[in-house]
Amino acid sequence: MNENNNTGKWTAKRIAAIIGIVILVGMYVALLVLAFLFPANSFEIFITAVGGTVGVTILIWLMIWVIGLFTGRHTIASLDAMTSDQDHDKYGNAYPRKPSGHIDTIIFDIGNVLVDFSWRQMLVDKGVPEELVEKVGDATVRTDIWNEFDRGNMSHEEIVGKLCDNSPELAEYIHKGFDDFTGIVKLRSTSIPLIEGLKKAHYRILVLSNYSKSAVDNNKNEMVFLDYVDGGILSYKDHVIKPDREIYELLIKRYDLVPDKCVFIDDTEKNVAGAKNAGIKAIHYQSLEQMMDELKELGIKRI
């Protein structure tokens, strides 16, 4: 997951400002020396200093304007200087200012939102008979023990062992299906374009998901969307899971969020309720179209 780091850079604006300061200081020092050498001409020297100050200021303005013209970036010297503090598109058009209280952060669950939780297909692909898939599901993904994968306090092998102990008649198929999690998720083709579109519209994108280390480690290609988001929490790393209030509060604290300026999207109603209890706006995900409609109702549009 990407973390944004702001480092000092020698920007064109900064270079132009330094050049201007050097010119002005040099001019003032030179004129001060001349005033001492030629006191009878001190008035003329003063007028020269005033004229030079105005001239250098105009020169700096022109330099910044030319730099902005060639780089396509808006500056204080742009003709629409009142929008110089706003972001602009590649054509130089300022994005509309967002009203006070606007959403600035969108938080996504992962499973069945950005990826498909495809445990059934994984079991079939690993040789579990189709007529046993639902029984194996009842003994694994639909149990409370399954949450321990997401909580991250026990090893993968320990959890699989407990699942087998609880359903010994299915132990062979539990091992076959879940000794590793390769194939348990499939990346949705819409996810990366969705994230990119929202980021281009200047929203911060985070994830908040009950997720296991094995699901991440065994599905690197399916998890590539994590390279596009601005951060977030995967439950196994912090040993807290949804819908416990602690995980929402941890996200808020870690990323210095204003809850009322955030919206959380999850396919599970109890997790949506947990976000709302923490003061975060939330959407119960049912389809991409429905989610986008509800985001638009909140004033959110992707580019």
UniProtKB/TrEMBL annotation:
InterPro entries: HAD-like_sf, HAD-SF_hydro_IA, HAD_sf, PGP-like_dom2. It comes from Butyrivibrio fibrisolvens DSM 3071. Pfam families: Hydrolase. The keyword Membrane applies. Keywords: Hydrolase, Membrane, Transmembrane, Transmembrane helix. The chain crosses the membrane at residues 15-39, 45-70. One of its GO terms (molecular function) is hydrolase activity. CDD domains: HAD_sEH-N_like. The keyword ATP-binding does not apply. NCBIfam families: HAD-SF-IA-v3. This is Haloacid dehalogenase-like hydrolase.
